[in-house]
Give the backbone structure.
Amino acid sequence: MTFSSRDFERAVGMIVGVAKIGPATPKPLAYRLLRRLGVLKQLPWSWTDSSRLDWMPWGPLKDVEFPRATPPTGLSGPWPQTPVVDEGFSAPILNVGPQERWEHVRYNITRYVGQIVLLTPVAAVKALKGPRLEPIDDAKLADLFANTSFAQFICPELDPPDLTAFADLIPSGSERSYMKVDFSAMDLLGKPLPGIYVAPTVSLLEDLGGGRYRFRAIKVGRKVLKPEDGASWTLAKYFVLQGAQIHMVTMVHPKLHFPQDAVNAITKTILPEGHILSRLLRPHTQLTLGLHESVIHHRRSVLHNSQREIYTPFPFPTEGIHASVAIGMRGVPGNSAYPPYQFGNFLPGIHTMADIVRSGLMQCSNLHPWWQRRYPLTTPVSFRGQIKSAPGCLDFLMAAESSRRIILPAL
Ligand SMILES: [Fe+2]
């Protein structure tokens, strides 16, 4: 048995949690030191929290009386129900039970607390030393959007307002060579935190072929800026990156987590104990219900961006972050960059090189023994094109049940 760095972080988190010191308390002494050193602008607990957090606990979720779900007659177990934090969220699973909650504390929370203890000194030195903002040239910006997970933000569809704003820049007949990166929803998230500036942006990208792009213009609010616009262009690029970060973490990422709770809970409740499908799915559904229940409903979760915590990095107060999650779910009508969430095989950024590489890796994972050795608890089956809807998902799973490529979890 090996003792990894993760285990070390968890051990530290466990000690801190049991001793009720440091980040396991609402007002850690070390934060006063960080304030004195100038790392923190003000003491975290001097911030006022949103009233949305009033009912949320500082301690364990077991102390909260959540509404009970109502599964169909004859079934008992976790079941999706009406959201309690924001009506725009996907159906949450509440009262997930002691086992799911304990696994979340044992594997997620302890590591989180351990990381706060172990990584804060380095983060504090970096914050003091700077630079906090690194310059970025146009080529690097384009490369980030072509070859990293930001590629999913390249939207091949220009909508009527985009065509109007960028009319002078798109030669007639070559419309198909132009795409956009749209972070205009930054305008829908309300006022930012005091002292923070945000701006909605829509960038016009020229497709140069071979997975390469060029930023031709950035619309900030109503102003269209071009590379020759000097400092304004530099600032516009920062706003694009800010939009990318907020969209990635608070609008896109929640869609990878929360909507699948329904499949997770229903599967666990419907399938008989020991059923092969239940065994196949178990590795994919572990450490999830407890995590999500806590992420959405615990006041110290990063999802609420309470400035009483030192790990909450977003520029908007709680209401803005919740709005962002909700926009990710329902989309923005009339804007091709913000489709509503739909369960299925849609993988964002499907037309970009980054996606082609990702797809290739998924295919390889089917075949390569290294992958199977490395992740023995996974079911390395290519699912692209096979899961089209919830019923389709079940068809796929039924087919997978008899597939020789499946590695059965060692249960
Ligand atoms: Fe995640």
Notes: Residues 375-411 have pLDDT under 50 and may be disordered. The first helix runs from residue 5 to 19.
